Amino acid sequence: MHNTSRVTSKGQITIPIEIREQYGLLAHTEVRFEIQRGQIVLLKEEFSNKRSNDLIRKMTSKTTLGMSTDEIMRLTRT
Q1: 9 belongs to a structural domain
Q2: How distant is the alpha carbon of residue 38 from its chain centre?
């Protein structure tokens, strides 16, 4: 497979759809760049501690509504 992309003035590139689909590079997938034997290599991050920590923090954060869990649950059932 041989595809060409151009780097924009903001340093962005477009990864061709065939490559994104083949390697599961969905929106918000984290990647990293490495230099290997004088070449730039793009690697998909399989697990991101930052992203996981953000999700855990959001799921366990307290509400600021001043309502009890029972009150919130009643609202979701109506």
Answers
A1: no
A2: 28
